[in-house]
Structure formats: structure tokens, C-alpha cells
Amino acid sequence: MPGDLLVKNGVVVTSSGLQKLDILIINGVIEALGRDLQRNGVEVLDARGLLILPGVVDEHVHMREPGLTYKEDFETGTAAAAVGGVTTILDMPNTIPPVDSSRKLREKRRLLEDKAYVDFGLYGVLHNSNIDEIEEMWNEGAVGFKVFLGPTTGNIPPPLDKTLIEALEKSAVHGFTLAFHAENYSLVEYYTEKIKKAGLNNPEAYPDSRPNICEEEAVSRILTLTRKTGGKALIVHTSTIEAVSLIKEAKMRSIKAYCETCPQYLLLDRKAYRRFGSLVKINPPLRDEDDQKALWSGLREGIIDTIGSDHAPHTYEEKTVGNVWEAAAGFIGVETLLPLMLDSALKGLIPIEKIPLLLSENPAKIFGIYPKKGCINVGADGDLIIVDPAQEDEIKAEKLHSKHKITPYDGMKIKGRIKYTILRGVKIVEDGEIIKHKMGRFIKPILNRKL
Length: 451
Fold this sequence. Notes:
By secondary structure, the chain is of the alpha/beta class.
């Protein structure tokens, strides 16, 4: 049930700055913001000395249900989200079966509704055989559509350019967003075969099997089609200096192009393959220091719009089997997303005001769930994260809540500690422990409407 809560004496962090405010949440919705607020009959939480941020909207998670629940399930995945300060997740569609029709979207929603600790939206997937289903999925409540241009978990084939044109034209009409895994499939195949023929199968060779040009070509093509159609495109897990440059130019031309990166591309580079091996195999791969620097610059300049986790769980056996070509790509991240980026802000790498912008406000806007989600405004859901910036914390793999606790950040000391996660006015996490039952709800884009 939605809660009634008065949060007092905290410092509210928004994209426009920091301000000491009280927050009154009634029936799960923010009713008032101000100084010295009072209300009888509601729980009071004293946040003196603490920072208050909007709940994180992680627009890029793979919770693996249905069909792959040995890797992760919706209960363990959303528990991890809640403890990490993520109050809304948008779940990717490359499950078994893939979410490629309104019927499958409806079935997935019904399967998950009683399993979620946090609120959730669902993507549909786009491929060549389901372009005629896209409006029906949108009407059913799809938050957006994922387009896999490169090889990925689930082996969903990339759509033809004519399918992309039609999908982007529909995007321009209806307002939904297409989220692109931007790697050129044939180039990935070419370079992978080239590296294999050279007899290389060690993790350090992996980035050379998917070099920067694979992302650069795909991003260039997406932006060209987006400019032609007027649709909305989000480039997910952006990893290269070339992609940042292309997206910067597109924004200057008022193309509806958005850019996501992930903590792994900001905090790790290809040298991590020496230390962690295939445990850090991800797609796109970890890049060079110049790419990493371009991503940080893109964050500061506003070229990069969002930071998602690309939470992609696998078993330890899948991550370490055989050589790097056989190992699964991806690792968990929803629980460490906010702590890692908060640590970066508290250490001065980016302004603290960038955290609510990149992790809450922008993803909510891009996917049409703002201002219900992603902000601390009157009328918004009372989704809050309360953080002690003075405390230090340590990421410990064994304490994470995913099924398979594989992370390169194990043992990392970080600044800041999440004290409370609040979902619609209810404290669901306190000091790293889940204290409430599963109360997550399915959410639809506010833009969603019958055609």
C-alpha cells in the first residue's frame, strides 16, 4: 500500500541544485515541499545531515525472467535494485520467449506483477517479423522497444534497414523510444573470425574482436535514419570516443538522439581483462583510456543523457567456461549503479547535481514516465533515496542480492552510504536490509494511449 511519510531536515538534490526542504508524501504521492512542514498522523523521518535524491530509474536491466531464471529472477533482481537505490527498472525483452508481441508482453507482465520489490516497465523487442505488432505492444504498455544490431544473449537477429525506417517512422508518430544496441553485426563477425584465426583466445584479445568501428558504423547509421524519420533513438551502453562525437554532432542538429553509458565503461578499461579475465567480458567490450576520457567529458558536457547498469547476470560457470569465446558476456550492476556513481560525484569527478539528472530525470523523460517518476516534485510518486555522504562503504560481493554475485567491484571502498530506499512513501530498505514486502507495480508510459 502507498505510504504517508514526512521527511524532514534533509538536503534535497535535484538537477537544478541543492536545497534544504521537507517532503510530505500522502498516499504515495508528494503533496508538498517546503520548510518546517507539519502533518498529524504521518510517520516522520529525520534526514538531518543526509542527502535526498529521487529514486533511480535504471532503464537498462536484464532480469532474465521468463526462461533464464537460473541466472536471475524478478524477485532477486528487484531486491538488488531496491537495496541499490533503484526504485524503477525498465526490463529488457531478450528473455525466453522474447517479448515480441502484445500477448507476450501481457503474459510477462502478469508473471512478474507479484514478484517485484520496485516498480517496473517492460520493453518490447523489434525484429524483421514483428514490425506490424509494434503499435499493439505500445498500446499494451511497452515502455519502449529494444533493437539489437549486434550479437547478444538470445541471438535475436538484427532488423533490416527498411524495418528500422518503419519503426522510427512509427516512433515519430507515437512518441516512443527505440533503444539500440549499436554494433554492426557483420563487422563483429568479421573481426571475431580474424582474431580467432590468429589463434588468440585470451580475454585481453576480446576488445579487438569488436573494435570501435563496429559501434561507430552502427551509431552513424542509426543517427542518419533517425534524422530522416524524426523518430527517437537511445544509443545504449555507449563505449567509444567516436560514438560520443557522432551523438554530439546529432544533438547540435536537433536530431532526437539520446546517449546512455554504464559505470563499467567509466570505471574500467581494457586493462581490466588482465586482472579479471572473462569475468569482465561484456558487449560492447571495455575500451581504451581515450574512450573512457571521452565518456567522462560527454557526461560533463551533457552529451551523455543517462547512466544505466546493463545488469546482465550469468552463472560463474558460464563466465569462466573454456576460452573467452565461449564465456557469457555481461555481469550484474543494478545494485552497484548508484553507489558507484555517487562515489564518483562525492570524489569530484562530476557535480552531485548530475546524479539525479543522469540516473533519474533523463531516463524517466526519455521513456515517458516523467514527471510521475524521476523527480522530487509535487504530484510525483514519493520515490526517494536518502544517503549519508559522510559515511564510507565497501562493496562486498557476498552481500549483494543477485543470484550470482560476480562483480569486479568486490572490495572497492566508496564514499557515501544509502540509508533508506523509499517507494511511494514506504521505506522498503533501511541500511542495506529489505524491510517491506514486495510492492512493485507495472508502469506504463504517460504518453501511452489508444491509437
